[in-house]
Amino acid sequence: MLVKLGIGPGPKGKKDLRGKKAFLYDDGKNPYRTMCFTVAAKILKRRGAEVETAVPGPTEKPHVKVIDLQQQPKLGTQRPRSRR
After folding, report:
1. Secondary structure of the chain in the HEC alphabet?
2. pLDDT in tens, 41-80
3. Do 22 and 50 form a contact (C-beta atoms < 8 A)?
4. How many CA atoms lie within 13 A of 66 on its CB side?
5. Which among 6, 18, 49, 67 is most buried, taking Cβ atoms within 10 Å?
């Protein structure tokens, strides 16, 4: 299922999906689809993606949307230069 989303198998233990967010739209009418979405959400979370589950609109079909998040600039404090 993840291959259909454009997210193939990744290296084990790596957080290669950081910076991505997955929206799972499930209406709950099909228990098999709900189970697949639950398993996919666990895998995506384990690989570093943010996951959000929602109910689709009245005319929408259940689906999954994966988007890239905007990278936040790292705000780090500058280290003082060593005194000599």
Report:
1. CCCCCCCCCCCCCCCCCCCEEEEEECCCCCHHHHHHHHHHHHHHHHCCCEEEEECCCCCCCCEEEEEECCCCCCCCCCCCCCCC
2. 998 888 888 999 889 888 888 888 888 887 666 666 677 7
3. yes
4. 18
5. 49
Is pTM beyond 0.90? Reply is no
- Non-local (6+) Cβ contacts of 40 within 8 A are 1, 2, 5, 22, 24, 64
The type of residue at 47 is: R
The single-letter code of the amino acid at 68 is D
**One-letter amino acid of 13:** G
Tokens of 20: 């991505």
